[in-house]
Every structure is written in structure tokens, then in C-alpha cells.
């Protein structure tokens, strides 16, 4: 039926638009985090911040409300895309144990970015809105029965995600998800190099965040936990810290670039 075909075509187009908007928004968040960290590394101001602090920084800029509003829409688009992948299996992953595990991770990712989008909405109402740091959030988890174990599990998950990101950088498995036929050889080589650096840097940061959470759980001390911003501060405090921070900051910017590349070239199988 022509009407059914038209409906399906519009459905596919809408899902592709949602995915592209979402990847772009996620990329812009990481680009902002990387730029702020890089500026701090070279002594030009800046700051080491996490995702929520990055949104708060944006909200305080000229035209910040307008830019943040657009970014919030994109973050909700990313959350919706993850939900479509995980709950409705629009990419046809199937129902094997491995596929179900992947789909669950996608749903959790969508929830995280929906929460980040909601924080952006709160910032639109009050740009001075603050959020608790990693120590406060960890202490809240530990205050519940079994909370220490939950913190340990979260630490293990972060380390697992970090290792997976690093493996993707090493194996360059992201290439299989791109429409490489739409890229020139030069574009493909440049995009691959930037993506590799970006995934490796994010993998390192996530593994460190997970390690801090494991230490916090082992010592039952929420002060040992660090989020993204605190992890960057820790890197900066090491020998050759500014150089190390600059390398990781560049990697986070490249991870943002990788997300934008996904917005343009990722295969959306629906």
C-alpha cells in the first residue's frame, strides 16, 4: 500500500533525524568539556568539569539560555534514540543474551542523558542551579542498605566501559558503523585518527573514574570518589600534569568530534 510505504518512509526519516540530533548534542557536550580542560592545561583559564558542570558553564555565557535550550533538545533526542535502540530494537539486534545485554546498556545510557537533559531544563529556569559532586552522590548511595556494594558495581561498570572504549579505539571497530562509501579516503583517515584518540582518552577517563569508585567502596569513604572533572584534576596534579591533561583534553575534544562524525556518517539501520 502506497500510504503504508509513505508512513514507513517518514518513520525512518524521523528516527534518522533524532539519531543525528542526539549524536551532535552529545558531541558538543564533550567538545565543551575538552576545550575547557585544554584552556586550563595551557594556563588560559578554563576549568576541569563534568557533563553537568559543562552545561552550567554554557548557561552563564552570553546567549547561554538560547544555546542551552537547543542543546537540551539534542540531549533528549539522544536519550530517545537510545530508548529506540534498547526498548524497541529499531536496529534489529535480536533477543540473544548478548543482544539483550547491549540493549539494556543502551536504555541505561538513554536514562543518563535524559537526566542530563533535565538538569539542563533546571538551568534554563535558574542558571545558578548547582548539582552535587561525585562525593555527595557516592555518600547518598552508600547511605542505603547495600550501597557500598552498589558503588563497587558502578566502579566495575565504569572500568568495563573504559576498557571497551579502549578496545574499540585499538580495533577501530567504529569504522564498520560508518557509511564509508560516502567518505573520501582522506576524510576516512582523518576521522579514524581523531576517533581513535577520542575513544582512547574517554576509555582512560572512565577507567580512572571506576577505579576511584572501587577505592571509595573498599575504604567506605565517599571522599575517594571522583567524577569526570575530579579525574581531570587528578591527572593535572601528576608529574607532567599539564602535558597529560592537554593530551586527555584533546582526546575528549576528539571524542566530541567522533560523535559529530557519527551524526553525519553513522549507519542508522531502521
Cα end-to-end separation = 19 Å
Tell me about the largest β-sheet: none
Secondary-structure element string: HHHHHHHHH
Which segments are poorly predicted (pLDDT under 50) over 5 or more consecutive residues? none
Q: Count the beta strands.
A: 0
Number of contiguous helices: 9
Strand content: under 5%
- Mean pLDDT, all residues: 93
In which range does the helix fraction lie? Answer: over 70%
> Which structural class matches the secondary elements?
mainly alpha
> Roughly how many Å is the radius of gyration?
19 Å
Globally, the shape reads: globular
Domain DUF1206: 21-88, 106-171, 198-266
Protein name: DUF1206 domain-containing protein
Pfam families: DUF1206
Transmembrane segments: 21-43, 63-81, 102-121, 141-163, 199-220, 240-261
Describe this structure in words.
This protein is an all-alpha fold. Helices cover about 75% and strands about 0% of the residues. The chain contains 9 helices and no strands. The protein has helices at about 1-40, 50-60, 65-85, 95-125, 135-140, 145-170, 185-220, 230-235, 240-265. The longest helix is centred in the first third of the chain and has 40 residues, at about 1-40. The chain starts with a helix and ends in a 5-residue tail after the last helix. The mean pLDDT is about 95. Pfam families: DUF1206. InterPro entries: DUF1206. It comes from Halomonas sp. H10-59. Keywords: Membrane, Transmembrane, Transmembrane helix. This is DUF1206 domain-containing protein.
